Amino acid sequence: MKGWLVKELGEPNDALQNSNLEKPERKENEVLINVKATALNFFDILLCQGKYQEKPPLPFVIGSEISGVVVQAPEGSSYKEGQRVLALPSLPNGGLVDYVSVAESSVYPIPDTMSWSEAAALFITYHTSYYSLVNRAALKEGEVLLVHAGAGGVGSAAIQLGKASGAFVIATAGGKEKIKICQELGADLVIDYLNEDFVEVVKKETNGRGADVIFDPVGGEIFDRSRKCIAFDGRILVIGFAGGEIPSIPANHVLIKNYSIVGVHWGLFNRKTPELVFKEHEELMALYEQGKIKPLIYKEYDFDLVPEALNLLATRKTWGKVVINV
């Protein structure tokens, strides 16, 4: 079978080799899947470079989100041959291959109405955003939600899930193209952070009250400025630090303005309570079938163009997700 193998660390162009690999054998408690699509993530680039927190032994295959068809499942499994699923392969056996064997606990059913590319692009972004808004922030109908980097993977999911929860959604994005994307995703108001001060706009739109929930995957200065427009009893969700800088939190300011800093570590939540993640997945699939969420896909690439797709992702000029058709 074909597969992209990282044989030596370096930039994707140098590290990745399109190779002929042996079809994997299904191990106990695993599901063998014929891969149809694989979503790329920025950490795939870091894995190629050897800069990611997880460092699998060489050689290895990247690709942590896939969709495909069940070929073989354990006896007594809830999955059957021919069933459509999405899955999270574990390193060093990632999903940029024709076939991959994945732990049954990391396989999830998808509806027939969902495309392969949407299924591959959905899991990490929507589960992170759902866990953030519903579980950690307890976002309520009528509250004001501010979503930073609204055209990104988790940001685009947060806009849609915020609207599904009945919130008034304000999004930030940079440039006309990304502004339009956020509008199409359903944001009630979009702020171009390249030309506008989001703090002032949020205060103006809320009559000085501020946002009840702020969804921040950027960190750094964005986090610091977000503290200036958080409402009384508000919640700032710390999703990540895409901006590269980890901010400090002045406890006196948290006390005086009476708001909460809420950490979001979805990966740990998944490891500790997989049964709750499966329940959330069922809820997300229901929202998809109701037409309330739809994964944002920047571009789909042929399998032979994986290095090119990763190079594009490295520019950080994409939005939503980049998907490889296998």
In words, what does this structure look like?
The chain has 326 residues and is α/β, with parallel strands linked by helices. It folds into two domains: 2-109 and 296-325, Medium-chain alcohol dehydrogenases, catalytic domain (Quinone Oxidoreductase, Chain A, domain 1, Alpha-Beta Complex); 124-267, 3-Layer(aba) Sandwich (Rossmann fold). It has helices at 12-15, 42-49, 116-136, 153-164, 176-185, 198-205, 220-226, 251-257, 266-272, 274-289, 306-314; strands spanning 2-6, 16-20, 30-40, 65-72, 84-87, 99-103, 107-109, 144-147, 168-173, 189-192, 211-216, 230-238, 260-263, 297-302, 321-325. Strands 3, 4, 5, 6, 7, 14 and 15 form a seven-stranded mixed beta sheet that branches. A six-stranded parallel beta sheet has the order 10-9-8-11-12-13, sandwiched between helices. Helix 7 (220-226) links the parallel strand 11 and strand 12 (230-238). Helix 3 packs across helix 10. The N and C termini lie close together (11 Å). The relative contact order is 0.15. The model has no long low-confidence stretch (mean pLDDT 95).
